[in-house]
Amino acid sequence: MTTKILKSDSPDNITLCAKVIKNGGLVAIPTETVYGLGANALDEKAVASIFTVKGREPDNPLIVHVASMDDVNPLVAEIPDAFYTLAKKFWPGSLTLVMKKSDIVPDIVTAGLDTVAVRMPNHPAALSLINACNCPIAAPSANPSGRPSPTKAEHVLDDLDGKIPYILDGGDCVVGVESTVLDISGQTPQILRPGGVTYDELKAVLQDVTVFAQVEPTGASSPRSPGMKYRHYAPKAPMTAVLGEPEKTAGYIKSRLHGGSGSKAGALMFDDHAFEHPNVITYGLFDDYVSQANRLFDALRMFDSLEISEIFAQTPTDCGLGCTVANRIKKAAGDNLIQV
Ligand code: TXA
Ligand code: MG
Description:
The protein is α/β, with parallel strands linked by helices.
């Protein structure tokens, strides 16, 4: 199979991709967070092929994408009160809501859980495609399991060339990290995965919101948000998340890159704390979490083309979107952390 990149602003391309999805095929779709690998969420066989193409563990459920709040009704057994508050405020956008599922959602989508995760993405092409298919679209990030999520159509081509017929190219993802997964199926809303919508933004509209204890550190075997237990987002070389004041982390990294130990190290650094070195890749200013989120996965992928044996990553202070960026770096490092 050859994989073609199609511009997402052409109605003909949307029609073509909708046809593929209606016929049980897969299409990579742009969203504001990361590219997704989409299939008809109500077609068991089509969803099974997502797992095959990604090499995804069958215990890791998928997010179902909708184009309106009304699209949610058939997918859930009940709509919690918090749903309307949250969807009105954050949809379309980077917030995934976990609710009790209805019978029409195949078990393969939810990995056997009695809940389903639903999100309305904030990208015109994704919404047009869902409407053109007239079905909800199940879509995990369009990377083979374990790899950094794709934030450009070319990233998807690098990873899935020959495995899917079409990539809808909607440009670079503006958020750059995945959605926040919020479970509203119980008494108190609980963040299962930090993402594009921050804790503080949720706290501003909810009376109470908790963070699942095992969001960090990993190694958890809990099934609450099964995806969080795997090493994720990882470049090929092993990575160490370096935590601490930026001056100190920069000093530590400099000593490692110039240490003359013979091992070739690379570093992910803040623009305002980086130093000149061919293996240093920057991803935004120390206090610019929006830029860090936007550039993180592309930067992690760039390390794969360098001749390096390890990577040190300057990791932001856990705060706001910086918390999400830090979470992704720690996961990419497989919880290999150092505090300096
Ligand atoms: O931004 C995003 O969320 C992107 C775009 C494509 O929408 N999608 C994405 O999907 O990141 P994926 O499959 O890479 O991550 C989905 C996460 C996993 O951690 C999974 O375990 C969790 O959502 N999840 C899905 N359904 C769940 C459920 N019913 N209960 C708890 N966690 C769930
Ligand atoms: Mg993913």
